[in-house]
Give the backbone structure.
Amino acid sequence: MADQYDFDLFTIGAGSGGVRASRVAAAHGARVAVAEEYRVGGTCVIRGCVPKKMLVYGAHFAEDLEDARQFGWNIEGKSFDWQRLRDHVQNDVARLEGLYGETLSNHKVTIFNERATITGDHQITLASGRQVTAAHILIATGARPHIPEFPGNQHVITSNEAFHLERLPRRILIAGGGYIANEFAGIFNEFGSKVTVANRSDTILRGYDEALRDRLLQIAMVKGIEFLFMAELEHIEKQEDGTLLVKLTGQEPRIFDCVMVATGRVPNSEGLGLEAIGVEIGTRGEIVVDAFSRTNVPYVYAVGDVTDRVQLTPVAIREGQAFADSVFGPGQPYAVDHSCVPSAVFSHPPIAAVGMTESEARNRLGSIKVYQADFRPMKNVVAGRNERCLYKMVVDAANDRIVGIHMIGPEAPEIMQAAAIAVKAGLTKADFDATIAIHPTMAEELVLFK
């Protein structure tokens, strides 16, 4: 790299994508610096999927302890301490943050714990006033929760604040119908809060297979979660006792102790100085990039949620890896394949999916075959729990190729990881049929479809 610059790569944002890109670029021999104004680790590690999964684990014990009776265990005097779980989770987040910092330091990446903005061609200015230059600039600033505009919106929380609550709310309203809303609905419900989910449309988890969405809705309602559809927040008034008087469209005003909004995420692209060098920004605030994560400015790249392609941590990591290998590695440049990306919703029970839904496959392929297994897991049978799993396989009738697998039930995301490999590889229904089942498991249903 040209010595005319202070660094070969300057990364703005030390989340999953930025850390991976910086580490790999440094391993290729590049001189790398990272600027992070908040905490190293980004959304996933600090205030996203990692601490949320820890809460999901904690929430599962509510049902597990109840089910344990049918398995011969007598558990007396059980109680839940929110503060203890909250603090344990935050302690582990701090541990992971330290490990991410160590990874960068071990690769001799320079870390600036302050905000950075682009102030000229190849030029970055830090909040301290220091100016540095870089041959390449990578934007990996992620996204933030969207807060709708309405009177009283200053009284809401987002998923960011949910991890730090002083106490559990007795009554919580969650606005939204996506994965974050449904995950936190399950978490708070298991912890004993009265949960109401308000969605502005008539559909939860848009993009997932309809059969799975319906099944989750049925189970969640049985668990005591209330759903209000075609209902948007109109205004919130804080009462003298600290409670919130909430007005939703089509509903009478109601009192809640907490209102959480989970209505999408907004790319963090503003205030970075991108306009100073003419980087193109899309209509949703996303940084516009090509398949190789390149912007319209030759030396500026972007990965992760700030590009609003697929807002998932593993995707950001893959994009960061591909960028670093392509720009600084010895091989040929390569792009990330954003098709057939598996995903999960850590609801109660969880959902996992890969490939096309049944309706998508019908629209795109025409002739398809659909196989379903609707069953009650052995553990639920013994426990006396009536929840049923639903597994679904979508097959292209023209060539027997599996184009989608969709699951709701215990451990669905763990099972899906291996199944997603098969779908990505283009395996057929016959390949699954030829595989001997592991019995007794829930996963065996994938090779027993008739």
Notes: The first strand starts at residue 7 and ends at 12. Residues 82-106 form the longest helix (25 residues). DSSP finds 13 helices and 21 strands in the chain. The CA atoms of residues 95 and 336 lie 30 Å apart.
